[in-house]
Amino acid sequence: MINKWIDDQLFSGMDYSGQKLAQTEFNNCTFQNCNFTNADLSESDFEKCRFENCNFALAKVTGSGMKNVHFSGCKLVGLNFDSCSNFLFSVNFQKCALDYSAFTAKKMKATKFLHCSLKEVDFSQTDLSGVIFQNCDLSKAVFYQTNLEKADFRTAENYLIDPEKNKLKKAKFSFSGISGLLEKYNIEIE
Fold first, then answer.
1. In Å, how far from its chain's centre is CA 49?
2. Please, are residues 86 and 106 in contact by the beta-carbon 8 Å criterion?
3. In Å, how far from its chain's centre is CA 53?
4. Which CATH architecture has domain 1-97?
5. What does the domain layout of the chain look like in residue ranges?
6. Is the pTM of this model over 0.90?
7. pLDDT tens readout for residues 56-86
């Protein structure tokens, strides 16, 4: 239940750490250099919002709506995106640190991850069809029963994907990254 509505606002250098911003709807807002460390954003709604150089360490996003939200230069380490509302969920990331985050069972068709760190991110059962992983580090990222059809991994690195446990039809990989698909077979590629 939304209690407060905020439209077309710029928030710059704000410190929301440890605060409760729950049940607020933000529409077409921009957040620059804001600190959301340990903030409670539960049941809030973000539509057509931009976050630039913001810190979301340990933030709570349970039931939050993220509709056409863009993150640039943000620290989103350990964020449980899988607890966000599924209704119209749409996010994109550029130059973000998303290590140890979870997107389990989210529908994220055509999402863009550009120059991001995605170490140990959980993509289990996620629909990543048409997703772009441009210059991303996917060290120990989990892909299990994940739809990766038409996903672009050509410039991504350090991924390990089991082709028998994920959908890979028409996914794009570079020749140098092919070992990430064959790791479980313990073969040598030269």
1. 15
2. yes
3. 15
4. 3 Solenoid (2.160)
5. 1-97, 121-190
6. yes
7. 998 999 999 999 999 999 999 999 999 999 9
